[in-house]
UniProtKB/TrEMBL annotation:
It comes from Erythrobacter fulvus. This is Biliverdin-producing heme oxygenase. CDD domains: HemeO-bac. InterPro entries: Haem_Oase-like_multi-hlx.
């Protein structure tokens, strides 16, 4: 890569760049998760939480191993396990290991953005779940304030113009995390269609 390109960076801030780069993947994931389970019934909500737990567990492990201080979001799998237990379900087997090869600039930032940014979507899902479940369904995961706190802190890192290397690494990692979630959601969607 030319040195000039490395120094130039992006026209957008990193958050706008990541949102644009993963918009199609997010739409596919949203659709697949609604098809695989949704949250209209208590059973659906339990399957939604199982998918979230299975998908997040290896990414949390990856971030534990690779993220520097300040870029490792709070773990949410214990909250999801708590909600599942309240619904009478054990935590599922984690998805196979998540990896993006040799770790480089921006990778932890991109993976952290996906997990933390999903707390924004969770806020709108929480409103629906509270209404549908009449306030009786467990919502430790969807109502997690610690992740929203992490998100606020992360904003100062991602609402800036990054260098090219960091932007490319963050985009690769974010894309890989979305692909990881999507693979599981599509598997669950197929299982649901067969059932
Ligand atoms: C049915 C599932 C999902 C729905 C309905 C949904 C919905 C949403 C909504 C409404 C927003 C915009 C929120 C706002 O701007 O206030 C959002 C943002 C986002 N969601 Fe999701 N989401 C879903 C699943 C996921 C999952 C599983 C992930 C992570 C793997 C994820 C990652 C993100 C990210 C990274 C953002 C953007 C953060 C930013 O603005 O920088 N979403 N989602």
């Amino acid at each position: 890569m030319a040195a000039g390109k490395q120094q130039k960076g992006l026209d957008d801030d990193l958050r706008s760049h990541l949102r644009a780069a993963t918009m199609a993947a997010h739409d596919l994931l949203d659709h697949a998760m609604q098809e695989a389970s949704g949250w209209q019934q208590r059973e659906d909500y339990a399957r939604f939480l199982e998918l979230q737990h299975a998908a997040r567990a290896p990414i949390e492990d990856w971030l534990d191993a690779h993220a520097p201080d300040g870029l490792n979001p709070p773990h949410q799998t214990p909250l999801i396990a708590h909600d599942l237990a309240a619904l009478g379900r054990p935590a599922p087997e984690p998805a196979p290991m998540f990896t993006i090869g040799r770790t480089g600039a921006g990778h932890a930032l991109g993976a952290a953005w996906v997990l933390a940014g999903s707390a924004l979507g969770n806020r709108s899902i929480a409103k629906q779940v509270r209404r549908i479940g009449g306030g009786a369904w467990p919502m430790a995961f969807l109502g997690d304030d610690a992740m929203l706190g992490f998100w606020q802190a992360l904003r100062s890192r991602i609402e800036q113009h990054p260098g090219t290397d960091e932007a490319e690494g963050a985009t690769d990692a974010a894309t890989a995390v979305f692909a990881h979630f999507l693979a599981l959601a599509e598997k669950a969607q197929t299982a649901e269609a067969v059932a």
